[in-house]
Structures are given as structure tokens and as C-alpha cells.
Specification:
The protein has 170 residues and is α/β, with parallel strands linked by helices. 42% of the residues lie in helices and 23% in strands. It is globular, with a radius of gyration of 16 Å.
């Protein structure tokens, strides 16, 4: 069984998870930005990693565009964000971002991410500050403060459910 790990990453967390997965299953690894989707024909399993920006899985438009080339393969999608993986918000982000016809053909795994405000690009800092103001208005001060709290929950053991899924079906 030949596998490919595709990813898009803004600050490195998604890329780190992609590298760990590729290493563990001895898969090829490519950035979505440079990969020719026509090359996917040679793979049985495609694992796609994305980050979440403003409650949207960034890879959603890409998936819609290439789904016809992936729909007959085993496809695993993982997302990386600060949003707690068991939260209602995490489920909403996934359901809102990925159409049902694609969701029904993939296995999905949200993973814990990293957020360090001082390392963000200026545009992302501005977006976070606006989001914090809106959160304060609609959800309260505590939630607004939490969304700006630095964290680093990127751990190799977080990929275990993905590896188990891949090995279960090989």
C-alpha cells in the first residue's frame, strides 16, 4: 500500500505532524502548494493535513477542487488548531468547511496545535485582535482572554489515532 501525506502549514505545526506521520508509515510527503494532483493516481492512501484559520479548515477549497481525483482512495484528513479537539466548535468548523459528499468519504482527525501570539504575522495578529473583541462582546471576557493565551500542544503521540486508522485498514 503506497501512501502520500499532503499538507499546508502556516506556522509549522501541521508540517510537523505531516512529517511525523510520513516517517511512521514510510509515506511520501509533499506540500499541497507544489504537488501536482495528477500524481495522486499512484497512491492508495492520501493523508491531508491543514490548519484552521477563522474557524475554517484552510484546505476546504482545495479538497472541493481535487475530490474527483481522490474519492476512490482511502483519504484521511487532519486539522491543527488551538480549538480543543473535543469541543463543539471543532466539530462545527469541520462540518462548515467540508461538504457532506466529501465528509462521507474520509476519516477526520482534529489535532491539538500551537499558538504563540508574538510569532504571528501582523495580519494574523490583527485578525486575532478583532476576533478577541467580538468574542468579548458575545461570549465574555474569560473566553476572549483564553483565545489569546499562548499554548503548544503539538506532540507526536497526538498522531496515534491516525496511525491506528492507517494500520487498521492496511
Amino acid at each position: 500500500m503506497k501512501s502520500l501525506v499532503l499538507y499546508t502549514s502556516a506556522y509549522g505545526s501541521t508540517q510537523q505532524y505531516a512529517e511525523w506521520i510520513a516517517e511512521e508509515i514510510q509515506a511520501d510527503i509533499e506540500s499541497i502548494d507544489t504537488f501536482d494532483i495528477n500524481q495522486a493516481a499512484q497512491y492508495d492512501t492520501v493523508i491531508i493535513g491543514t490548519y484552521v484559520r477563522v474557524s475554517k479548515l484552510v484546505v476546504s477549497d482545495y479538497l472541493r477542487t481535487v475530490w474527483d481525483k481522490l474519492q476512490n482512495k482511502k483519504v484521511i484528513l487532519f486539522s491543527v488548531s488551538k480549538t480543543p479537539i473535543q469541543s463543539e466548535a471543532s466539530v462545527k468548523n469541520y462540518n462548515k468547511s467540508i461538504p457532506e459528499k466529501i465528509r462521507s468519504g474520509i476519516k477526520y482527525f482534529p489535532l491539538e496545535g500551537r499558538f504563540i501570539f508574538d510569532k504571528l504575522e501582523d495580519k494574523d495578529k490583527s485578525t486575532m485582535k478583532i476576533g478577541q473583541k467580538m468574542t468579548r462582546l458575545f461570549m465574555g471576557k474569560q473566553m476572549a482572554e483564553e483565545m489569546m493565551r499562548d499554548c503548544d500542544d503539538v506532540r507526536k503521540e497526538n498522531i496515534s489515532p491516525i496511525l491506528n486508522e492507517i494500520r487498521r485498514s492496511s
